[in-house]
Amino acid sequence: xxxxxxxxxxxxxxxxxxxxxxxxxxxxxxxxxxxxxxxxxxxxxxxxxxxxxxxxxxxxxxxxxxxxxxxxxxxxxxxxxxxxxxxxxxxxxxxxxxxxxxxxxxxxxxxxxxxxxxxxxxxxxxxxxxxxxxxxxxxxxxxxxxxxxxxxxxxxxxxxxxxxxxxxxxxxxxxxxxxxxxxxxxxxxxxxxxxxxxxxxxxxxxxxxxxxxxxxxxxxxxxxxxxxxxxxxxxxxxxxxxxxxxxxxxxxxxxx
Length: 256
What we know:
Layout: H1 2-7, H2 24-85, E1 97-102, H3 111-119, E2 127-132, H4 135-143, E3 148-151, H5 155-165, E4 167-170, E5 173-176, H6 180-187, H7 195-203, H8 209-215, E6 219-220, E7 242-243, H9 248-255
Parallel strand pairs: 3-7
Antiparallel strand pairs: 1-2, 1-3, 2-6, 4-5
Helix pairs in contact: 5-7
């Protein structure tokens, strides 16, 4: 009997499915990836929330500027009508902003004129820049009058130039303004966070005009549709050079 019991095979215990241990380095890497995903998710939520807030701020500012422009235009129309009704003359407010367009090259340009054109950032033909009018800039424009056309831009011209031809100068490079984030990053300390702030600061020649204008790369325009009439003559003599006041808007419309 003992022999028969010894010869009887004993059933083997079922093997457990034991998973091999995970290396410590792999465990740390997995944990780091999970934490990175969680941080990225939080950052995306914050960015999304920030964009929604900025969108509301931008809309409010755009509405405020629109009402301001309408009120100013309405005030001018009212004053002109009052002067006409009383048989008087209405003196238009003195221009504080000029749009300067270079129309001639460098052939035969004396060193002083060339230096002034460089100071105005007009290094190429058909380049355009905004200039704050004061005694110094008026004298500079008078000296380079045969090589430029300038005048007082209106809201439509300023807005179309910045929206269509606006490029930013960031790190010495010409970067297209495709997002308000670029403006906010560079000009937030001056309370300029969107394209409408830039337009308002330029048009009204605000306290931070210098910084905003420096942020904008000189506008590169096309040759005007229909061409120039005569670059070598002054505008008052039937040419194109010199001061043309509000008629600069018609020229820039043809060049934009």
